[in-house]
Amino acid sequence: MASGGNGGGGRVIRVLNVAEKPSVAKAVSGILSRNQGGGMRVRDGRSRYNKIFEFNYTIRNQPCQMLFTSVTGHLMELEFDDRFRKWHSCDPLHLYDAPVRKYVPQDKLDIKRTLEEEARGCQWIILWLDCDREGENIAFEVLEVCRQANHNLNVWRARFSALIDREIHQSVQTLVQPNQLFSDAVDVRQEIDLRIGASFTRFQTMLLRDAFVLDFATDDRNLVLSYGPCQFPTLGFVVERYWEIQAHEPEEFWTINCTHNFDEGSATFNWMRGHLFDYTCAVTIYEMCIQEPTATVSKVKQQEKLKYPPHPLSTIELEKRASRYFRMSSEQTMKVAEDLYQNGFISYPRTETDCFSEKTDLRVSNYFFHL
Hints:
Mean pLDDT is 86; it is low at 1-7 and 365-371. The protein has helices spanning 22-33, 109-120, 133-149, 165-173, 180-208, 231-247, 279-291, 315-326, 330-342, 364-370; strands at residues 13-19, 41-43, 52-59, 62-70, 77-80, 100-103, 124-128, 154-157, 258-262, 265-269. It folds into four domains: 13-180, Rossmann fold; 183-247, no CATH class; 258-291, no CATH class; 312-370, Topoisomerase I, domain 4 (Orthogonal Bundle), CATH 1.10.290.10. Helix 2 (109-120) packs across helix 3 and helix 3 (133-149) crosses helix 5. The chain is an alpha/beta fold. The protein has a six-stranded mixed sheet with strand order 2-3-4-1-7-8. Strands 5-6 form a two-stranded antiparallel sheet. A two-stranded antiparallel sheet has the order 9-10. The longest helix is centred in the middle third of the chain and has 29 residues, at 180-208. The chain is built from ten helices and ten strands.
């Protein structure tokens, strides 16, 4: 990997910057171009949705002409060679050692052309993909396309967890190398998903399609009984939870509550017994309390209670609480989280962490000041 020095020098170099989404490219460009001489210029790329932002910036005393564009998620897809793509071309078992290849699909060709054209005239490329394994893999997809057009590019990776000024400026001044191992881990996962999903889907569709009468099938020839390494266990969780709900038998219970009102306010007392499932017993005990309304305070215990601030939420816990308290789907939750992230309120939502970056300024007023 090319990694020439990134410090000093009076010659202006051209730097291609690539983000994972158009909105991130626009946000980061806005932050970096603020207060820079010449302002920011915007022009169209080959793709109408992926604009190119141009501005001047200095990286470690090196004057740079920044060209900032984006992709839209993964630039490439994984598929089998043509001779294995038809369902009856081979035994499903043969898909486990069939050759696979990565390619740029038709709907991403305009983005690919933009990257190639811009890379030819640049000396550096800075990869601003999201800071998780998936983002690292997309970074290497972008790099593969750009290096086909310019194999002399110096390659750098910007790591950031929030779209706020201090975080972005610090990340561009502390550029690192992209992590090949993280990208390889995603390649392995994608290949496993493809081989298992395709082989089991073909196997069970061809085996079961003629064995059962499927009322929901309108056209048996186009019927697919799909299987996926994530899809199948998730279906199991849903079915198991459904069975638990169906098997639940609600049972009535009663409680006895006591509240004492006085000049300074009121005090509520909780019965240690909790719930009573026998109505007669509950009524009997309640009548005994009414007949003897005077109570004696036998012991008063005082203690200091500390209320700690809430911990940051991991992605899974965020989705759980949004579902429980707001009845929001996972898709809705991640959409809102993505919007908050792009406006600088939270760190990147798709990483399984509950820790803030050391570079994050937690003073809320600063977020609102910059928005």
